[in-house]
Design a protein that fits this description.
heterodimer, A: 317 residues, alpha/beta, five-stranded parallel beta sheet, 18 strands, B: alpha/beta, binds flavin-adenine dinucleotide
């Protein structure tokens, strides 16, 4: 009961980065507990995935031939069966969109406590998980009073493991109850195409909910024009229909890496940061000195955007 | 058809706040209807407006204060609401997703809905797990992070888009009865009209205790305990421009020219 079981994630033929981050977390936890790290890879080209995942610190890779893509009914069944065979003390899953779609189900089915969106995990007798609350304004530690625990980890929070390993690769013959498969993935669709590709821009002026109303867009457009920048935004602006989807920066939007990312009235929620933290220079204009974006910014103005932006336009003209 | 929408009043921290023990001091918290739940409510109300015979019921686990929030759901077209609360719930520190799922499961048993909508996550504790945990507890099928829904009630199927990372959506057919966790952007939530707000006052809002739901306080026992809360150490090394708006804007203009993204 000191082993760790982590379930890799893949999509459209490729392992997702978080799979390699799971290895980093998993091998550390296994080492702390004197146990082994077991990885599971479910569906797709499992042998090729197993090759890629044969990394330092992994003891066993369980390959499960079960369809091409993620299906939560199958993942839930397989993970349950693997869990019962391996009896790990910790089940590690990604806090990705698909993680959101099956981690709570598997935890509930196994009757194991679940802590989601971990940014740190310590295991010393009990498990202590660090996570954020109130839109990343505070961190909390959650202690888990149970021998077993399921934890979903925040993507891109740990370094990926890439050193080769010598894990045993074993095929796991899962017993799938087809009558319990009540969802069918019928395809994928790409959204967010269109006229402008914000991921190509050198200078992004990006706006968030701080602009309050659609009527305030012309002010920003004036700045965009004066600076020859490209306009992008956080999600609420797109949700409100003020800008098209191809302007959204973030986890479900685009990943951007401009020379300068000017975040105006954007708090810096984790799903937004996922799309822009690789920018060279990050500048934030925000009234809240404690907004999480401030932790990321290279330069900041703590002030009302409606005061600063007109002055900025003036100064540039 | 009956749609149950779970809603939560969430706390938002003001710009400046102090932590008192294991939570932000209540003086610095403002309460509002969870952003994701607004879209869940709208989705249910739109189905009702399109369909023949649909009842929309909202349920929350929350103190009396939350009734203001629930009335907003009623004002937007929800038919009636249930608020679950009692002294035992009030005394609980962390209501983790499994606990919430157990309490909500008892409401599902009572109401027997065909569909349950929840928000993807709550803006305050961001567990993002209650909807799917509930589905598993009550034996419903489910779908998480749904940003488009085409319901085929006759066939007993919900055709959904699930919003994955990086601008990709998954198309999935989900058998009813099911729980869908609703993502923002799926619709345009309406504002409550004055008429709606007036009508909401006379719509039923039942308060149920755990024992009304056939539960006892044991259901609240959770292995999760919050042991610390703190402001994260700022890793930020941001240069903060100081002065009047004119000064700071001037410094930023210089910076943009220095970096070379605008012409000097
Ligand atoms: C599964 C999932 C996927 C998601 N994907 C994305 C994504 O791809 N991209 C994304 O952006 N979000 C995404 N989100 C949403 C994300 O969690 C946040 O809700 C969103 O990023 C918040 O946007 P915001 O910063 O504009 O708004 P808020 O968080 O409301 O922040 C507004 C900021 O403006 C500041 N402000 C207010 N008034 C002023 C003023 N007058 N002057 C200056 N500053 C002011 C405030 O201090 C605050 O910091 C996703 C969420 C989920 C659950």
């Amino acid at each position: 009961m000191s082993d760790v079981l982590a379930v890799a994630e893949h999509r459209q033929g490729e392992l997702r980065d978080v799979s390699f981050e799971l290895v980093t977390v998993g091998r550390q936890l296994a080492a702390d507990q004197g146990g082994e790290l077991h990885l599971a890879v479910i569906g797709g080209d499992v042998d090729a995935f197993a090759d890629e995942l044969n990394l330092d610190g992994v003891s066993v890779i369980h390959t499960v031939d079960a369809g091409e893509e993620f299906n939560h009914d199958i993942y839930t069944q397989v993970t349950e069966q693997l869990f019962e065979e391996i009896e790990p003390s910790t089940l590690l899953l990604p806090n990705s969109v698909n993680g959101l779609d099956y981690a709570p189900a598997i935890a509930s089915r196994l009757d194991v406590p679940l802590v989601t969106d971990a940014v740190d995990i310590a295991r010393d007798g009990t498990t202590e998980v660090t996570r954020e609350m109130y839109g990343s304004k505070v961190e909390t530690t959650v202690a888990v009073d149970d021998d077993t625990v399921a934890v979903s980890i925040r993507p891109a929070e740990w370094e990926a493991t890439d050193a080769d390993g010598d894990a045993d690769v074993v095929a796991f013959d899962a017993d799938i109850d087809e009558s319990a498969v009540k969802s069918t993935v019928t395809g994928f669709e790409e959204v967010a195409g269109g006229d402008v590709d914000i991921s190509e821009a050198e200078f992004l002026v990006s706006i968030g909910r701080g602009i309050e109303e659609e009527d305030n867009l012309p002010l920003i457009e004036e700045l965009v024009e004066a600076t020859d920048a490209t306009l992008s935004s956080s999600r609420p602006i797109v949700d409100n229909g003020w800008l098209p989807k191809n302007r959204q920066v973030g986890q479900s939007g685009k990943v951007v890496t401009p020379d300068v990312y000017l975040a105006i009235g954007i708090s810096g929620a984790v799903q937004h940061v996922a799309g822009m933290k690789g920018s060279d220079t990050i500048v934030a204009i925000n009234t809240d000195p404690n907004a999480p974006i401030m932790d990321l910014a290279d330069y900041a103005i703590v002030d009302d955007l409606f005061d600063v932006v007109p002055e900025l336009i003036d100064a540039l003209e | 058809m009956k749609i149950l929408v779970t809603v939560k009043e969430v706390a938002e921290a003001e710009d400046d706040f102090d932590i008192d023990g294991l939570d932000i001091d209540d003086r610095y918290l403002e309460y509002d209807l969870n952003e994701w739940d607004e879209y869940a409510i709208e989705e249910a109300v739109q189905i009702k407006e399109d369909g023949e015979d649909v009842e929309v019921v909202s349920v929350t686990i929350g103190p009396e204060r939350a009734e203001e929030t629930i009335r907003m759901a009623l004002a937007k077209g929800v038919d009636r609401a249930i608020r679950v609360w009692d002294d035992d719930v009030a005394a609980t520190d962390v209501l983790d997703p499994a606990t919430k799922a157990d309490v909500l499961a008892a409401v599902v048993e009572q109401e027997e809905p065909d569909l349950v909508f929840t928000g993807v996550q709550a803006g305050d504790d961001s567990f993002g797990a209650t909807g799917v945990a509930l589905a598993e507890t009550i034996g419903f099928e489910w779908g998480a992070v749904v940003n488009a829904l085409d319901l085929d009630a006759e066939e007993g199927v919900a055709n959904v888009h699930r919003e994955l990372e990086g601008g990709i959506e998954e198309l999935t057919e989900i058998q009813l009865p099911s729980v869908l966790t609703i993502q923002t952007g799926i619709n345009e939530p309406r504002y409550a009209s004055l008429r709606g707000i007036r009508q909401a006052q006379s719509k039923p809002l039942d308060v149920q205790t755990l024992s009304d739901l056939g539960l006892d306080a044991g259901v609240l026992e959770s292995p999760l305990q919050r042991t610390e809360m703190y402001e994260p150490e700022s890793e930020g090394e941001a240069v903060v421009f100081e002065g009047s708006s004119e000064d700071t804007a001037g410094e930023l203009a210089d910076l943009l020219q220095d970096v070379g993204v605008v012409e000097g």
